[in-house]
Amino acid sequence: MLAAKRLEEHNICYTVLLKSRRNFLINIYQICRDLAKELKKNRPDLLWTSLPTATFYGQIFGKLLKIPVVSWQHSAYVRPYKKLLFYFMRNLTKLWVADSENVAVYLHERFRIPYKKILNWPIFSVSSTQPQSHYKPGEQPFKVGCLGRLHKLKRFNCLIQAAHILKQKDPTLEQKILFYIAGNGPEENNLKALTQTLGLKNVIFTGFLSNPEPYLASLNLYIQPSDYEGFCVAAHEAMSAGLPILSTPVGQLQISVKPGITGEYISASNPRDIADKIYFLYQNPDLLIGMGNNAKAYVQKNFSHDAFLEAARKFTKITSQFL
Prior knowledge:
Blueprint: H1 2-9, H2 24-41, E1 47-50, H3 52-65, E2 69-73, H4 80-89, E3 95-98, H5 101-111, E4 118-120, E5 142-147, H6 156-169, H7 173-176, E6 177-182, H8 188-197, E7 203-207, H9 213-218, E8 221-224, H10 233-240, E9 245-247, H11 253-256, E10 263-265, H12 271-283, H13 285-302, H14 305-320
Parallel strand pairs: 1-2, 2-3, 3-4, 5-6, 5-8, 6-7, 8-9, 9-10
Helix pairs in contact: 3-4, 6-12
Protein name: D-inositol-3-phosphate glycosyltransferase
Enzyme class: transferase
GO molecular function: D-inositol-3-phosphate glycosyltransferase activity
């Protein structure tokens, strides 16, 4: 429970209702029993739910106990077997909070939720302490990096394969272009084994970074070759550091990454396409720097701290009408 530490640091109380995964029916009974007990003991003015399963429980008890429900949706994806239930219960939620423009569109188009019942409140705002990337062609190696959990869906193996393709194209590029992979996760050993098998000396694993800001500022190009993403905070942090983005058109990145302006789209299943895009930007530093400046301007305009607070004020104004 990564969130627990932060809650405790701010003296925010919480109760864990399901501490183990047992039989499905037993879980339903336990959650319903404990949730009903908790809500009757400490009746809230508002129920905030997150993720479809928790939202279903919240909608049911909100209806039974006449407590208004607000549901946060952080992904433009609902598992197929939950979609029908999600659709039929959508009106039990008074307000849907989307974590991005992409999710807001998904809720409206896929589940026919009116935009007047959707508040776009991104989970990201530009950090005032984020140092900036400074690329000096010819004076330093070209640094390409990514950041995230090392999972199959992130497709970091394709980045390693792209590094191998560039080495085959020109062996001297192994000293000129460096690849950084930041994070940890279940695919770490497999990715390291692939790097060793391909004989690559320019792929560096940094491990988990509690503060990624200096790391992002040290890069010259950020890449996100994922099969799937939600908002993708890491890529937007990279944009705030003045980095252009090479990304698959997934999640919010299909909106934030504007080809030729703030970055370029890539195909996760095509390492050669990734290699070609990296090499093209390496060969065109003025274009690279210009895209990075555009990326920074984009996030400063759309994800500023003031914009975040304005969304919070809208949330307070809307939900006060429910009480």
